[in-house]
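task queued by scheduler; priority normal; single chain, no ligands, no partner chains; default sampling; output format set to structure tokens
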Amino acid sequence: MLDVLRIAGRNLSRYRRRTLLTLLLIVIGMVAVLLFIAVTGSFKTMMIGQFTDSVLGHLEVHRKGYVASIDTLPLNLNLNLRPAAVAKVDAALGQLDVVESWSPRVKFGAMFSNFTETTSIRVNGVDPAREAATVPLLPRRMIEGPEDGVLVGKGEIVIPVLLALGMKVGVGDTVVLVATNRDGSVNGKTFVIRSITEGISGPGGRDGYIHIDDARELLRMKEAEVSEIAIRLKDPAQLDRVTATLREALEGVTSAEGKPVLEVHTWADLSPFASLARMIDVMTVFIKIVLVSIVLVSVMNVMVMAVYERIREIGTIAAIGTPPARILSLFLGEGLLLGAIGTALGTLVSLALIYALNVWQIHFSFGQQQDLVMAPAIAAGQVATVAAMVVGVALLASLQPAWKASRLDPINALRHV
């Protein structure tokens, strides 16, 4: 085998310019694919992290029908989770080792007043400690307010920066929240603005936060109801498995009619940006197809030309007794060397460029968020997959020319002009 590869390498060096051009095409293709995977993968991971770690969590549990009608639900149709249902969810989550934390929330719409002007706001009543553990990026989004690690206290409210600018209020100001209760009555409560959060794109990016006890008092809840339970996993890669397990565990929570009353949603079910993440995956597949096409065409072209230009040479080595299998392996060896060398060079150049992009970082804006830092990274498994694909396609592209060379008749080949 080593002799075959040594002879194949010597043959490639005889046509140095053509070999270098083919290698250049493979290297460019490798660099384009690996850089695209690294950059888009970094963007996708950061984008998903912003949603899951700032607002949504990895999973959420709701009463059936809550998500579908959250913006249109009449106030008299309460779709909150009752304490008994919350206890069953807590019990199910407590049995899952992969769950890191979960946080109950009371969500509702309210009127926000600075005593002279009024606007609307979506309010989240949260348990501060559990909410900070479930969405750890939320406390870091505070751009104004005390930095004592407390998300929000009783009698306090955290509001988004756009609302603060629009209503001309700041940290320490007193505001009023007015909400309509289930029975149609209206209740109001004053709050002191504790902190102001930066803007974030997507659902929940403009929400305010108060203590969950204040939310229940404002809504005059007689029981400790919750609107949703946000869940954080220790390993987000276990999302699908945990979702299936949790749905199976909660199927037993049924209504008097025997129908399931709870629903489990992943972050992708709740965020419109999940479509963008899926689009990135589709684009990655198309980029890989382009790479395969480049390698296939370039290697096949150079091997077809090699066979055509060396017909008399092939006839000579066949006439002196070289078996067809040996001739086949010689040309396959040339294709294998082209793929392997191009892959090695392309991988080295790509890793160097990815390292450079992490040294000289690229800053960009996304929606409401400014000065985000691009940090491209690529897993060893992804590099190995692309490398194996390129080498395999190079070998496949040289198979037909090699087969044709091995089947040449020595007499006819020697007569070729």
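post-processing summary
- The longest strand covers residues 99-113.
- The chain has 14 helices and twelve strands.
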